Amino acid sequence: MEWNWQLIVENCTGCGICRDVCEQRAIKMSRKMAYPEPIEGKCNGCFDCVRECPFEAISVLQIAAKVEV
Ligand code: SF4
Ligand code: SF4
């Protein structure tokens, strides 16, 4: 299952909570980065970051599986 992690930039304060709560280490953010970024292929859709972000700045959606015809 693949997940599309998206930041709502205008809501994000750059607090770093989402990176800290992600057990998959699927979010990167360094002192030089103003905003968090997803690391491709690591998110497992647990929604911890969505729940813990104080500013509702994260959207995580499942990417629909491709159907072969
Ligand atoms: S927890 Fe929310 S506000 Fe804080 S850095 Fe992550 S997305 Fe931005
Ligand atoms: S949904 Fe879970 S695994 Fe994905 S980035 Fe958020 S905390 Fe990490």
Describe this structure in words.
The structure is a single chain. The strands form two sheets. This protein has a two-stranded antiparallel ribbon with strand order 1-4. The two termini are 19 Å apart. The chain is built from two helices and four strands, in the order βαββαβ. It is elongated, with a radius of gyration of 13 Å. β2 and β3 form a beta hairpin. 14% of the residues lie in helices and 23% in strands. The protein has helices at 17-21, 48-52, and strands at residues 2-7, 27-28, 37-38, 58-63. The protein has a single domain, classed as 2-Layer Sandwich (Alpha-Beta Plaits). It is of the alpha+beta class and 69 residues long. It binds iron/sulfur cluster (SF4) (2 copies).
Name the hetero compounds present: iron/sulfur cluster
Give the biggest sheet: 2 strands, antiparallel
**Rg, Å, rounded:** 13 Å
CATH topology: Alpha-Beta Plaits
Question: What order do the SSEs take from the amino end to the carboxyl end, as H and E?
Answer: EHEEHE
Shape call: elongated
Strand order of the largest sheet: 1-4
Our count of helices gives 2
- The tally of domains stands at 1
CATH class: Alpha Beta
Q: What is the total tally of β strands? A: 4
Q: Beta-strand percentage?
A: 15-25%
Q: What level of helicity do the residues show?
A: 10-25%
Residue runs with pLDDT of under 50 for 5 or more positions? none
Category from helices, strands and their pairing:
alpha+beta
Distance between the termini: 19 Å
The second-level CATH architecture is 2-Layer Sandwich
